[in-house]
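stage 2 :: seqdesign
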C-alpha cells in the first residue's frame, strides 16, 4: 500500500504505538475500507485529512485508534501489585491521609475497580480522608464502559468470590455498586501529551501496566521520564509484568514486595542527555525483565560472564504444562539474555501467551523464526491469534504451518475452529474432517518445540470436540 511506512511512523509519533509486522495486513485492509468510505484517494491524503481537519476528524481519529490499540484487560490482573499498593498506603497513612492514584491506559476500567475493591477489602477507605483515583485512556469506547462499570459475565470469572458483593447483577451483566462507581474519574488522555495533574500536589502512585510494551523504546523512556516528574517524592510507578526498564536511566529504585516489582522515585532527576545514553542499556533490559535488573545491582552490564549452562528444556516444558510459569520463565531468562536460541524463545513466548501478554508472545515467536524457520512456530502463532479472536490472521499462520506439514492434525483442528468463528461452515467442516482423519492415523501428536496448542486439551478432549462439531 503506497505511503504505508510513512503512515506507520505517523501513528507512532501520534500515539507511541508501534504496529507489529503481523498486524500490517489487517491494518491495511481497515485503511482501504476507510479510504473507500470517505472517498479519499490515497493514504497520504487520509493522513492529511486526520491532521488538518482536527477537531472535525475526531470521530475518524477515534475509529482509527480503536483499530490500533489493544484494549485487552481483566479484573485482578497481576494482583500482587494491588497487595503491594495496600501495604505501601498503610505504611504511609499516618503522615499522609490523602492519596492520589493515576491508572494510565486503564482501558475498560477493570484495573481501576480492582484497585478500589482491594483497598475497600483491606479497610483502607475508612482511613484515608481524601482518595483521588483517575483512569485515563486514548480509547473512547473503552472509557465509556469504564464509566458504566458494567461487565459481561465472562469478565467476572477472574474476580475472587469475596468481591462479588460489590456487584449488582443485571441480566447477563454485572455492574459495580454505585458507591464504588462514584469514586474514580475517567478521562480521555494520550500519554504523549502533557500528563494530567491530580487535584492537589502530585501523584503518589502511577499504574501504567501493559501499555508501554506496544511503544517504541525511545517513546517509552520519554513517558517514564514524564511519570517521574508527575510523581511525589517517594511515589511509586507500577508497570506491566514484562515492561521493566533499567533503573540507571532515571532516579528510580526497583523494589519488590511479594511478587510485585515497582519503581520508587528517588531524589534528583537527571538530564535528558543522560537518558539518551541509557537507552542502549534500556533496550537490553526491556525484553528480559526483573531477573536481569536484579542482577544489575551486583554486576556491571559490561562484565563478561561465562555462558550459563543450557537450560533443561524437558523440565521447563513440564513446568509450563504444570502452569508453574514464573519458575519456567526465570530459568529461561537466565539463559536467554546471554545465549539467544530459538528453542528458548519459543518456550518464553508460550509463557507470555499463557500470561495473556500476547504482544510479547508474538514478538518472541517472531524472534525464534528469525533465528530458525521452525514450522511448529506457525502453529503457535495461529493459536495465539485464535486466542486473540483475530481469526483471519490465525488462519494465515495455520495455513503456513500446513504448507510445511499438510497432515498436521492440530493445525486442521484450529483452522476448523477459526473458520467456524468466521462463519465459514463448509471450510470449518473440511478442516474438522481432516483433523479427525490425521488424529486417527497418527499415534503421537506431541509437539517438539511449543507446549501451547496442546494445553487446550488432551488428544481425547480435542477428538470429542471434533465429533461434536461434525455431528
Ligand atoms: C492492554 S491495555 C492495558 C489495560 C490495563 N492497564 C491492564 O493492564 O490490564 C492497553 C491500553 O493502553 C491504551 N493506550 C495505548 N496507547 C495509548 C496512549 N498513547 N495514550 C493513552 N492510552 C493508550 C489502549 O487504549 C489500551 O486500552
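stage 2 :: out
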Amino acid at each position: 500500500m503506497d505511503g504505508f511506512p510513512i503512515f506507520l511512523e505517523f501513528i507512532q509519533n501520534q500515539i507511541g504505538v508501534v504496529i507489529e509486522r503481523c498486524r500490517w495486513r489487517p491494518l491495511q485492509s481497515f485503511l482501504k475500507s476507510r479510504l473507500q468510505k470517505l472517498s479519499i484517494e490515497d493514504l497520504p491524503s487520509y493522513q492529511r485529512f486526520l491532521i488538518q481537519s482536527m477537531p472535525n476528524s475526531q470521530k475518524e481519529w477515534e475509529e482509527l485508534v480503536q483499530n490500533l490499540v489493544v484494549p485487552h484487560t481483566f479484573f485482578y490482573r497481576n494482583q500482587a501489585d494491588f497487595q503491594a499498593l495496600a501495604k505501601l498506603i498503610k505504611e504511609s497513612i499516618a503522615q499522609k491521609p490523602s492519596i492520589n492514584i493515576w491508572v494510565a491506559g486503564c482501558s475498560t476500567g477493570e484495573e481501576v475497580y480492582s484497585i478500589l475493591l482491594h483497598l475497600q477489602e483491606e479497610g483502607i477507605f475508612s482511613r484515608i480522608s481524601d482518595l483521588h483515583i483517575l483512569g485515563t485512556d486514548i480509547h473512547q469506547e473503552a472509557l465509556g464502559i469504564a464509566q458504566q462499570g458494567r461487565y459481561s459475565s465472562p469478565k467476572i470469572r477472574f474476580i475472587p468470590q469475596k468481591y462479588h458483593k460489590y456487584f449488582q447483577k443485571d441480566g447477563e451483566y454485572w455492574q459495580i455498586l454505585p458507591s464504588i462507581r462514584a469514586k474514580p474519574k475517567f478521562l480521555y488522555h494520550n500519554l504523549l501529551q502533557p500528563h494530567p495533574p491530580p487535584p492537589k500536589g502530585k501523584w503518589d502512585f502511577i499504574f501504567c501496566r501493559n501499555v508501554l510494551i506496544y511503544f517504541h523504546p525511545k517513546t517509552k523512556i520519554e513517558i517514564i521520564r514524564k511519570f517521574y516528574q508527575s510523581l511525589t517524592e517517594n511515589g511509586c510507578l507500577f508497570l506491566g509484568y514484562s515492561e521493566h526498564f533499567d533503573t540507571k536511566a532515571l532516579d528510580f529504585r526497583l523494589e519488590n514486595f511479594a511478587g510485585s516489582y515497582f519503581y520508587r522515585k528517588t531524589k534528583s532527576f537527571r538530564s535528558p542527555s543522560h537518558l539518551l545514553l541509557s537507552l542502549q542499556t534500556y533496550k537490553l533490559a526491556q525484553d528480559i525483565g526483573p531477573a536481569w535488573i536484579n542482577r544489575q545491582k551486583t554486576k556491571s552490564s559490561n562484565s563478561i560472564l561465562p555462558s550459563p549452562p543450557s537450560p533443561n528444556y524437558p523440565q521447563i516444558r513440564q513446568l509450563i504444562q504444570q502452569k508453574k510459569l514464573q519458575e519456567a520463565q526465570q530459568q529461561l531468562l537466565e539463559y536467554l539474555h546471554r545465549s539467544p536460541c530459538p528453542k528458548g524463545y519459543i518456550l518464553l513466548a508460550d509463557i507470555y501467551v499463557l500470561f495473556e501478554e500476547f504482544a510479547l508472545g508474538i514478538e518472541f515467536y517472531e524472534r525464534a523464526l528469525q533465528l530458525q524457520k521452525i514450522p511448529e512456530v506457525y502453529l503457535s502463532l495461529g493459536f495465539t491469534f485464535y486466542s486473540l479472536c483475530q481469526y483471519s490472521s490465525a488462519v494465515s499462520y495455520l495455513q503456513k504451518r500446513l504448507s510445511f506439514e499438510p497432515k498436521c492434525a492440530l493445525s486442521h483442528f484450529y483452522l476448523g475452529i477459526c473458520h467456524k468463528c468466521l462463519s465459514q461452515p463448509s471450510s470449518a467442516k473440511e478442516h474438522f474432517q481432516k483433523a479427525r482423519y490425521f488424529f486417527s492415523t497418527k499415534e503421537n501428536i506431541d509437539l517438539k518445540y511449543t507446549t501451547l496448542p496442546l494445553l487446550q486439551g488432551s488428544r481425547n478432549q480435542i477428538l470429542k470436540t471434533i465429533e461434536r462439531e461434525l455431528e
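stage 3 :: structure notes
- Residues 425-441 form the longest helix (17 residues).
- Residues 269-306 have pLDDT under 50 and may be disordered.
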